[in-house]
Amino acid sequence: MQKNKDVLAILIGLILIIIVTAIIFTKSKDKVNTRLQKTEVVEKNPYQSISPTELQQKIRSKGQIKIIDTRSFSEYSYEHIMDSSNISLDEIEKYSLEMEPEIILIIDDTTGDSLDKFISNLKSKGAKEVFILSGGMAEWKILGGQTVTYGNPNLFSDQSKVDYISQEDLKKKIEQKEPLFILDAREKEIFAKGHLPGAYNIPLYEIERRRLELFSSKQIVVYSDIEIEAFQAAVKLYDTRFITAMILKDGFKKWTENNFEIEK
């Protein structure tokens, strides 16, 4: 009887030893797998990254950086980081200008030979360091990074950035010499053929770059040939300068149809 008990105790002990050994082996294997996975991540992403917060600090400090958005032109046009340039991975060889010392890339895919070639080209044009924005545009927006949007009149968020003024009300304000800054967002050549009295010309596509020309305490009125272009210009003013501009309803074409005063 005692022998049976001893044998049973030995068997239980052996089983416990086997179980403990199996647990230890499994944990060790998991640790090895974790280390291998981390190594693979490092190997797959050998590029320097920068967080949205760090990029915001660099922008505020006015450092010598250039932000390059490699997404499609349609994505870039719809919304992008202010002062960024849209250059696809395939176009960098055609880009002739020298680069700033630090380049920040907005990119969707960090795998493939095209990115390596892109970064090599950037460095050959003067870039000392190249960073990839962590989380891309999605993370930038979540953390409150400033963007410039295309200006969609069907979006409440864009409509809330602008006001409107009627043709008759603007005519009256001009006649009464009220303090206004009238911005003509049409092409330079079209502006020269005739424009509202006292208007200042900055074409729609130049507003972001020339926004600092709009230092004015006056109420800003924006117009173009058609209202939608003026709307897009006004949205850009808000996005870049936090200026709420008034849009001339029905545009310059309607102004001329009303036989209101113009200058050449």
Describe what you observe in this structure.
The protein is an alpha/beta fold and 264 residues long. The chain has 2 domains: 48-149, Rhodanese-like domain (Oxidized Rhodanese, domain 1, 3-Layer(aba) Sandwich), CATH 3.40.250; 156-257, 3-Layer(aba) Sandwich (Oxidized Rhodanese, domain 1), CATH 3.40.250. Helix content is 44%, strand content 17%. The protein contains 10 helices and 12 strands. It has helices spanning 2-44, 52-60, 73-78, 113-124, 136-142, 156-159, 167-175, 188-192, 227-241, 251-257; strands at residues 48-50, 65-69, 79-81, 85-86, 102-106, 129-133, 147-149, 163-165, 180-184, 200-201, 219-223, 246-248. The strands form 3 sheets. A 5-stranded parallel β-sheet has the order 1-6-5-2-4. Strands 8-12-11-9-10 form a 5-stranded parallel β-sheet. A two-stranded antiparallel sheet has the order 3-7. Strand 11 (219-223), helix 9 (227-241) and strand 12 form a beta-alpha-beta unit. The longest helix is centred in the first third of the chain and has 43 residues, at 2-44. The protein is elongated and about 95 Å long.
In short:
With 264 residues, this protein is α/β, with parallel strands linked by helices.
